[in-house]
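Input/output pair, single chain:
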Amino acid sequence: MDDKKHFPLAFKLMVVLFSLLHCVCFSSAVSGSSGGKKGQWQLLMNNTGVVGMHMALTHHGTVILFDQTGAGRSRYGLRRRYNGTRCRSTQHDLTDWSCYAHSVEYDIRLNKVRPLRLDTDPWCSSGSFLSNGTLLQIGGYGRGSRRIRYFRSCENGRCDWRQSKTLLSHDRWYASSQILPEKDRVIVVGGRQALSYEFVPKLHSNRGSFDLPFLHQTLNRNEGGNNLYPFLHLSSDGNLFIFANRDSILFNYRQNRVVKNFPRIPGAGSRNYPSSGSSVILPLDHTNGFRKVEVMVCGGAASGAHQAAEQGRFLKGLSSCGRMVISGNTHKWNMENMPRPCLLNDMLVLPTGDILIINGARRGSAGWNNAADPSLQPYLYKPKKTLGRRFSVLKSTKIARMYHSSAILIPDGRVLVAGSNPYNKYTFRNVRYPTELRLQAFVPAYMDRQYHNTRPGNVSIHYANGTYGGRVRYGERFSVRFRLGRKPSKTVEFSAYAPPFTTHSISMNQRMLKLRCRSMVRGEGGWINATLEAPPSPNVAPSGYYMLTVVNGGIPSTSQWIRFIHA
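Output:
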């Protein structure tokens, strides 16, 4: 019999509503109206179907979004479960999470989403991209806490999540991941009741996890941990920077040995979940051989904020940021303040090398309904300016992005913003900060149409074998061809950006490199040919896909994908 006659009315209405709402207000960022120096906002979709609690950009121009299967009914109803059985209008099926998508793939070009399959709950998990562009997704909640999942993007729209039969050694809920210089090996650090680290794949079949005393030392049980989702950054010497609560170390994971204990970041409060500040590694630069490594930590919650929030009192968050050079022999936190307090915030490195601080709240902590006073205005931080002139306030959004929101940079230079759900179920009515399914793009000022003639266009990458596609080995030279409407500015830079896995205010594996330009020749018709040099080693740039951007006088091109590989 005809399938439509048996398709439940509730599901029919949901599918119709989804199709009506999910494609609105999309326009080209570059040709849009002037946003001035503060940028502008675009509403791309009214309904992504799922909460953008976790987000990741693939090298095929799509974005993976997913939330938690335990949230129940999403707003993307399925006709059939992934095992093929039909979803009906019974009470069981209306509340069965497997009759609803909890992960979608968003196509940037088409401005559409399609559902993806999840077999176990990835709530509060971690992720890293492997060298071939596969997203390695680790841990989660309940039956998903020891699971390893893979998503390898494709061009035909038929790829999906694949769950490994191999299990993690420990439950990894609120853990962090970092891709390592060794090809396709990831380190997973921490998690609730997991004060250890492990590798995926394992170093040896008979060796699982390794105890990490640093996590014992930074644990604050009275405040929900305050060392969950630790900040991880790979130093260019191959060691791992780990920040948890207020303290940090440089860790030789190969020898299971602490190389350095850094000074405690000044001030009270905490920076890690559930205090939930954020962190970036500032761009690594060829001018110093990529040897200067500097990290930045911003925001977080006040001392006692988590317990106070559980009682309905929302303490003012932290407004301070700290920068510290972790290479060399002298280490000191250099402190400065954001325009206002911020927690639950995302920090992204823009193609210009500036830092965007976006999303979050000004009071409270992470957790169910634990925050108040949304941070609606993004901040732009320019690291190279003098102290006191580095921060500027950007255009405000009207959509609160609280707990469980995320943001990512995409190749055209915009920043996608999604998610926010301070509740354990989808909640849309009679609450102050309802579950948020709208997808936005923040359009930085560098995309304004007034810079049209300054923006490098028609960027293409040419490899040693003369083709337009391929791979670049470490230290190898390659060519970039682009076009300018006018003479190049005095400063033309070339950046390579590793796209992160973002969740819970952390952009895992985010990394930007300023590449060496060996020569640049201007030809006829505004065409320019530049010869660049790939990073020298996987310590500087773990193998994988990067977004290559030409930046002319602070105005970036649309990024093109390049892949750095081992010889």
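Residues 230 and 564 are 27 Å apart (CA to CA). Residues 1-33 have pLDDT under 50 and may be disordered.
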